[in-house]
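Sample 3 of the quickstart, ligand guanine:
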Amino acid sequence: MKLLDGKLIADQIKNEIVTEVVNNFHNKGLSAPHVAAVLVGDDPASQSYVTGKEKACREVGFISSVYKYPANISEEKLLDVVDFLNADPDIHGFIVQLPLPGHIDAQKIIERIDPLKDIDGFHPVNIGKMVLGLPCFIPATPSGIITLIDRYDIETEGKNCVVLGRSHIVGTPISVLLSRKSKHGNATVTLCHSFSRDIPSITKEADILIVAMGRHGFVTAGMVKKDAVVIDVGIHRIPSSETKSGFRLKGDVDFDNVSRKCSYITPVPGGVGPMTIVSLLQNALMAAKNKII
Ligand code: GUN
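Result:
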């Protein structure tokens, strides 16, 4: 078994981005890519994601700004914030951290974002372009998975690929990317969800298994074909008396047992997570270079 080391690859890509920022921005007298994040309310997970994104921006020499609002901000006011960021020529790309409070229609907010600044790739224009194989912002987690597949030279053409979970952020876009007619596509993709029957009989046929269910330890060794490639998108804080923090991060896959059986596997932490953040940086770089038309 080989680890798909997301931390290692993300660090390599960050170094590549630093070189780009120096050569194509600083040395040309241009200001560095500027990324903004909108954070509503005080959900600890959202706060920690946004802090992680800010840190990554600093590491590669990007400018980053966070716009924080209380949970009771009105939908109208948040739409104004989006309009303001759309119109600010100094901001190349931005995200609105999800989830949003229940009184705000998240889809309405997403649809207000200028698709050319939508570095999350959640706007319907970007999703539509992704399906058609046109230049666009690809959502960060699926983009990071494709980059891992690329950097570890994993063949996807003609492979049986099973995706567990059909979220808009991960499962649905990765199933599109792997089945597209493209370099890291051409796979036969099966997308499983809450109505799928006998999931183990489906996963046992997978050459590549992508797990984005949000259920800790869902995939056990008995569900995995020998020498499969297993990519775990899950991230769960599991209470632990053995760590200082009092918890341990675990995925949707029973790593200890599944890793004995597969050819490649992503660890949690250090697998898909770092790739997600670095993919957002890559999208921001594309936004600053005006690469999406
Ligand atoms: N919440 C969980 N993941 C994401 C993400 O990738 N982007 C945004 N904006 N919110 C999230």
